[in-house]
Amino acid sequence: MEPFRVYILGCGSALPTLKHNASSQIVEIRGKMFMLDCAEGTQMQLRRSKINFQRLQAVFISHMHGDHCFGLIGMISTFGLMGRTAPLHVYGPKELGPVLDMLLHTFCNDYSFEVCFHPVDTTKNKVVYEDRSVTIESVPLQHRIPCCGYILREKPTLPHIRRDMIDFYGIPYSQINNIKNGAGWTTEDGDEIPNSRLVTPADAPRSYAYCSDTKYIPDLWKVVKDVTVLYHESTYASDYEDRARMYYHSTAEQAATVARDAHVGKLLLGHYSARYNDETKLLKEAKAIFPNTFLTNEGMVVDV
Q1: Catalytic residue selected from 67, 101, 167, 203
Q2: What does the DSSP assignment read for 192-234?
Q3: Is 121 a catalytic residue?
Q4: How far apart are CA 141 and CA 159, in angstroms?
Q5: Which of 160-174, 225-239, 277-291 has the lowest mean pLDDT?
Q6: What pLDDT score was predicted for residue 169?
Q7: For the chain, what percentages of helix, strand and coil (3-state, to nearest 5) are there?
């Protein structure tokens, strides 16, 4: 299987700490690299992760709070200094458009690459990016300002060729694509070999859902149902549920409830409040509801 990895660059919340950077992730899928949120300090985290800046194709911003987007213009400026020529596509709430345009004209007006902004309707679950192998869709969230998450999905692939059967029946390479697309084979003696003997099933498509920031949404599980890996903000433990409700954030227990109801494969917690020096309390709460839960941390690489 081709790599499908999530690189955690930052998993803290708004208040800066010496332990965590604010929100940013890189998702590597089918040879492409996408960024989810771009907080202050993201460039340094990219350096530490040894990720090639130039491979980044697009940035997806969830909302217009600084701990999710203050690093964007600095990173774009660095791309210009490095001589980037490929367009950089930026997706985010429509409110980001005029702000980004002003910053680009002020700080980045002499660079040799284009920044293409794509407004995202944060109220709708719809595909906002698509190519031959990947789709990325928006996920409406409920925060204090317009906000959405994103789901990255592999498109289904063709079955795998059984090389032993191809060699045994002497099938020419020119027929391999036909067989991958469902054709059988007829031997010189007239024996019909069914397609099922010539291939093995394709790998199941994988998916990754990024949900930050949001208050608990009881029906969110319907949108992220059956994703391979879910990242869901878990700013607080349950003893601060009132505070979570007030600031439109979630507890670890609530994140785990979404994961359980959606039957996801794995849950990642993040966006921790600065009040926690040790996030073990969050992990214990979540695992009590959804055992396959993990804490994120800077430098962590998750295989989807």
Answers
A1: 67
A2: EEPGGGTEEPPPPPPEEEEE-S----TTHHHHSTT-SEEEEE-
A3: no
A4: 36
A5: 160-174
A6: 87
A7: 30, 30, 40
